[in-house]
């Protein structure tokens, strides 16, 4: 049975500066039929159609990324990667009308990956005792804490967006269940269930580390 992490335990393993997540940004309004037509045209390789998609959704993709990445240059780099990846995976999009949400999910995932790579502490396997005298002086507890943080980062990265949002809002942003209910626009019971499921899934991801 997977270990259920308690609030204090999750707070101990995380840093709000690295894990803060906010609610999804509103998508730009666009008639469904033209968007579907653009998607189908882009799938056929029509460059003008894809350029129009970038024009419509470029800002919301950028804003999604900026919620996690503060540097303009870095955010723009990730935005370019979002649209490159989206174009490669466009044939997999079965519901063209969901293009906006699909792009936003890609943007959020790539932004998380970028932040994780930039801020992840190097593991002990990547350094030798000879390469860093700091390791010799560093308390074992600090080494363990960094490894735990990295394990949590990787675990969160493997969770779905809904699970991540629930954990970030409750443990990192410190929102109450009632506040989450209002902001997610779902019943209180649904918030409790999401949080329970998200915590359980994170525990499953961390099972190897906690053993």
Automatic annotation (TrEMBL):
Q: Does the keyword Transcription apply?
A: yes
Protease found in the keyword field: no
UniProt keywords, alphabetically: Sigma factor, Transcription, Transcription regulation
Gene Ontology biological process terms in this record: DNA-templated transcription initiation
Q: Which Gene3D superfamilies match?
A: 1.10.1740.10, Winged helix-like DNA-binding domain superfamily/Winged helix DNA-binding domain
UniProt domain RNA polymerase sigma-70 region: residue ranges: 54-118
Any idea which GO molecular function terms this record carries?
A: DNA binding; sigma factor activity
Pfam family of the protein (one): Sigma70_r4_2
Which residue intervals define the domain RNA polymerase sigma factor 70 region 4 type in the entry? 150-202
Q: Which residues cross the membrane?
A: none
Q: Which family does it belong to?
A: Belongs to the sigma-70 factor family. ECF subfamily.
Task: Report what the protein is called.
Answer: RNA polymerase sigma factor RpoE
């Amino acid at each position: 049975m997977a270990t259920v992490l308690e609030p204090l335990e999750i707070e101990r393993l995380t840093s709000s500066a690295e894990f803060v997540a906010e609610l999804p940004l509103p998508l730009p309004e666009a008639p469904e039929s033209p968007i579907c037509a653009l998607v189908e045209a882009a799938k056929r390789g029509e460059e003008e159609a894809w350029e129009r998609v970038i024009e419509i959704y470029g800002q919301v993709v950028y804003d999604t990324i900026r919620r996690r990445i503060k540097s303009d240059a870095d955010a723009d780099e990730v935005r370019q990667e979002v649209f490159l990846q989206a174009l490669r995976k466009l044939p997999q999009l079965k519901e063209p009308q969901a293009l906006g949400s699909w792009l936003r999910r890609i943007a959020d995932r790539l932004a998380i990956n970028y932040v994780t790579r930039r801020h992840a502490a190097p593991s002990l396997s990547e350094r030798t005792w000879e390469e860093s005298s700091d390791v010799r002086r560093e308390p074992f507890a600090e080494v363990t804490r960094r490894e735990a943080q990295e394990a949590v980062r990787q675990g969160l990265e493997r969770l779905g967006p809904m699970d991540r949002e629930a954990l970030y809002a409750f443990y990192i942003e410190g929102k109450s269940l009632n506040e989450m209910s209002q902001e997610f626009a779902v019943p209180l019971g649904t918030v409790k269930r999401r949080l329970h499921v998200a915590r359980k899934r994170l525990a499953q991801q961390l099972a190897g580390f906690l053993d």
